[in-house]
Design brief:
mainly alpha
Length: about 170
Amino acid sequence: MAILRRALDALYLTGGVIAALFLILILLITIAQMSARWFGFVFPGSTDYAGYCMAAASFFALAYAFNRGSHIRVSLVLSKLGRYRRYGEIWCFAVASILSVYFAYYAIRSVQESIRWNDISQGQDATPLWIPQLAMAIGTIVLAISVIDNLATMVFTGKDNINTEGVDDANAEG
């Protein structure tokens, strides 16, 4: 089980690192766009590419942010459940698991349909839409894995895998 735990944590961290790399790519695209304008050139499709990178960063970061306690949770309501809190947590993780699997399924279907219909973006870049949609599909799959992982951990151990140390410390200071 320790190997599986390390592998899953590595998967979530990898998503976070990829998200960070896409944010850096947005910076580089913005610098390239500004430089092109300063020198009288045009960087066609740069706005579209930056948008794709922003979407990729957002979706790749989902599971990492979830496991770091950065998503909004219903802690206030759960704390009022007292000794039944665990059941409330299980219910929340179960609903979140169903929704995240549903979202991942349709993200995958969206990629398949874009490939099937040879959809391209409406911008200057004319990028096949399955390329930016692939980041959405991968990000939602990893999020679904993360939520199911937390559900299973809660059911079998009574605890989740969400590390809120940094979040709680930041809230206590601010």
